[in-house]
Amino acid sequence: MTVTRDRAVCFANARAVLDAARERLARDRAAGRLTPQAAQILARAEQRAQHRAAA
């Protein structure tokens, strides 16, 4: 593998892990099974999204 391909594979794996975590968080949120920390993280993410949309 070339360095560029190694980097692409690494980024693809990282993206897959993050996507899976987002899906798991969305399922937990829909089922009402959020920990206080996860609820706080989601609240901050929503606040940032609203701030970006208003700008």
Quick one: biggest sheet?
A: none
Shape: flat
Mean pLDDT: 87
Radius of gyration: 16 Å
Brief digest:
With 55 residues, the protein is mostly helical. The chain has helices at 3-31, 36-54. The protein is 87% helix and 0% strand.
Give an overview in words.
The model has no long low-confidence stretch (mean pLDDT about 85). With about 55 residues, this protein is mainly alpha-helical. It is built from two helices and no strands. The longest helix has 29 residues, at about 5-30.
Give the helices and strands, then pairings:
Elements: H1 3-31, H2 36-54
Which features would summarize this protein structure in a list?
55 residues, mainly alpha
